[in-house]
Amino acid sequence: MYLVTKRIEFCYGHRLLDYDGVCKHPHGHNAVVEVDVRTDELDNRNMVADFADIKRLVKGWIDRELDHKMILREDDPLVAPLEALGEPVFKLDSNPTVERICKLIYDMARDQGLPVVAVRVWETPSSFAEYRA
Prior knowledge:
This protein has a single domain, classed as Tetrahydropterin Synthase, Chain A (2-Layer Sandwich). Strand 3, helix 2 (79-84) and strand 4 form a beta-alpha-beta unit. The protein is α/β, with parallel strands linked by helices. The chain has three helices and six strands. The chain is elongated and about 50 Å long.
């Protein structure tokens, strides 16, 4: 088995509804995403996947959809006022936890044909979540 990992950085804001802790307030993170791509056989270039392809697909999507946006649950009362002000919002059907963001990125990468086996999102330098099928 061969495995490569691509690191991607982005910034986002969020808050958690129905949560009794400091994360119930709007706040931001400088996130680091690690995308693990695995295969049993190397391609004709002797690669699992080209790092440039992973970057183009995953970072390109993150830059368009998540970077410098407020990631909020679709029923969050902040959605309407932020959108009315023209602020960038990405809406989810559930709380925008780091675990949920991992699965979101994993699903998008798999949908793009990458043989992704795991996605880790470091929310802080000492805390991360991981999703793997």
